[in-house]
Design a protein that fits this description.
Blueprint: H1 4-20, H2 27-33, H3 35-43, E1 53-55, E2 65-68, H4 79-93, E3 98-102, H5 109-120, E4 129-133, E5 141-143, E6 148-151, H6 154-160, E7 172-176, H7 188-195, E8 201-206, H8 208-216, H9 225-229, E9 232-234, E10 255-260, H10 270-282, E11 291-296, E12 305-308, E13 311-315, H11 321-329, E14 333-335, H12 345-352, E15 356-358, H13 367-373, E16 377-378, H14 384-399, H15 414-434
Parallel strand pairs: 1-5, 2-3, 2-6, 3-4, 6-7, 7-8, 8-9, 10-11, 10-14, 11-13, 14-15, 15-16
Antiparallel strand pairs: 12-13
Helix pairs in contact: 2-3, 4-15, 10-14
């Protein structure tokens, strides 16, 4: 039973939260405490921070590839953003002037340089690669009329759209790393995200499974055979320097399950995964020995959650790139639901780190195709029963002392993964900027 003191402390904490972040209390409270935020949520239009640029005629002779990424910071660099900067790095190594443009916050160039070299494993920073900020109305970023843009998310494609009439070339590159309309329920945001696939762009697709989904479902311009045929598709590399099994026996510790639990990302199926985990524990799947259950990926946004059977899911602190890889090596099972056609990087990285993965199938992402990447990936249908059975299977394999099934059937370094695609991007960029009317 709560003491009077603890009860009053809880009430005070809730009052502070109501004052500072009423959105956490839902729409009924929000409409009274902050009507404008309530209206913004009701209208449901997600827009990127405005991009402020100025076309400068003196920059026409040196066309630049402007890669839009709203934010670059030490706490935002998950698999998708790291892929974006790796693509930028490799295009720059082709001799193309590349600038990564943020609109939410300016980037610390020194931090970015260190992080890029750590992610790519390179020893030299490309001289033609820079970072810039285009989020200040009072200090717009100068661009040339022959510059080319690369969108990295549907909101950045929407940022580009009104700028194209001012440019010599009204076409852009579009790095697609998931079916992003699926990030939103059928809504204004769904419509805006879907619209971007009808624009005039050069598609650069992260993963064949995703490309197959876009073409099989005739999404936007991917319904056109000629358009789909010129898409540049690459498989993600799982860096063997960083993601590898433990070099010796695992330390004497409780067995560990990591749950890639991001409450703000609906496609991660937090509720469904949690229900299945509780059911597997109730069924005795983890009763053989002491297990530890940690939630990762959510930057500590989850509270401790009771799993039953005396177990608790506890949030793990955010790790840097190498710390995250060590976290995977120190675990036995990763539960990573993902209701999308892309595998998700944690699935592949865990399989490369010597652990078992429980994810799910979706459309072109079948259990058979995932097993062909790695025998350590279990992909049931996204149901409570499916996840429960797969978690029980994974726990049984750990109990039996299973051995890792080997490296995933994917590139082990980004040089080999991206070389054909970034060389093609450089060739297309030169064709665009040399003769925009024929590009």
């Amino acid at each position: 039973m709560l003491s009077i003191r603890n009860f009053t402390l809880k009430i005070a904490a809730h009052l502070r939260l109501l004052r500072d972040d009423p959105e956490k209390f839902g729409s009924n409270v929000l409409q009274f405490t902050n009507p404008q935020r309530f209206l913004d949520r009701l209208l449901d239009v997600q827009t990127a921070t405005p991009m402020h640029v100025l076309v400068d005629p003196t920059l026409t002779d040196r066309p630049t590839l402007n890669i839009l990424q709203p934010i670059l910071s030490s706490v935002s660099m998950t698999g998708g953003p790291n892929t974006i900067i790796t693509v930028a790095f490799h295009v720059a190594r082709e001799g193309i002037p590349v600038r990564i443009v943020t609109t939410r916050d300016a980037t610390d160039p020194a931090w970015f340089r260190r992080h890029l070299l750590a992610v790519t494993g390179a020893t030299e920073y490309p001289p033609s690669l820079s970072v810039a900020f285009a989020g200040s109305a009072g200090d717009p970023l100068p661009i040339g009329s022959r510059d080319v843009f690369l969108a990295t998310h549907w909101t950045t494609a929407q940022q580009i759209k009104p700028l194209l009439p001012k440019m010599d070339l009204r076409q852009f590159f579009y790095l697609i790393q998931d079916f992003e309309p699926g990030f939103h329920a059928w809504s204004s945001n769904y419509a805006l995200a879907l619209e971007t696939y009808d624009l005039d762009f050069v598609p650069v697709i992260n993963e064949r499974l995703l490309f197959d989904f876009l073409t099989d479902q005739s999404i936007g311009r991917f319904a056109e055979k000629n358009f789909a045929a010129r898409a540049l598709v690459f498989e993600p590399a799982i860096d063997a320097r960083v993601f590898h099994p433990p070099e010796g026996p695992k330390a004497n510790r409780p067995r560990r399950l990591l749950f890639y639990a991001r409450p703000t990302n609906a496609r991660n199926l937090l509720g469904l995964g949690l229900a299945a985990l509780r059911q597997a524990i109730a069924d005795g799947a983890f009763a053989d020995s002491t297990w530890e259950f940690l939630a990762i990926g959510g930057r500590g946004s989850l509270p401790d959650l009771d799993l039953g059977g005396g177990y608790t899911l506890r949030p793990a602190p955010w790790r840097d790139y190498n710390g995250y890889a060590q976290q995977l090596r120190d675990a036995d099972i990763l539960l990573c639901p993902m209701l999308s056609p892309h595998t998700s990087y944690p699935v592949l990285e865990m399989a490369a780190s010597g652990g078992l993965v429980v994810t799910n199938s979706f459309a072109s992402k079948t259990a058979t195709r995932l097993a062909a990447i790695s025998a350590d990936i279990l992909a049931p249908k996204p149901t409570i029963e499916g996840f429960t059975a797969a978690l029980t299977d994974a726990a049984t394999r750990v109990r039996a002392g299973r051995t890792a099934g080997g490296r995933p059937a994917l590139p082990t370094d980004w040089d080999s993964a991206l070389a054909p695609v970034t060389a093609a991007m450089a060739q297309v960029f030169r064709a665009m900027t040399e003769s925009p009317d024929r590009a």
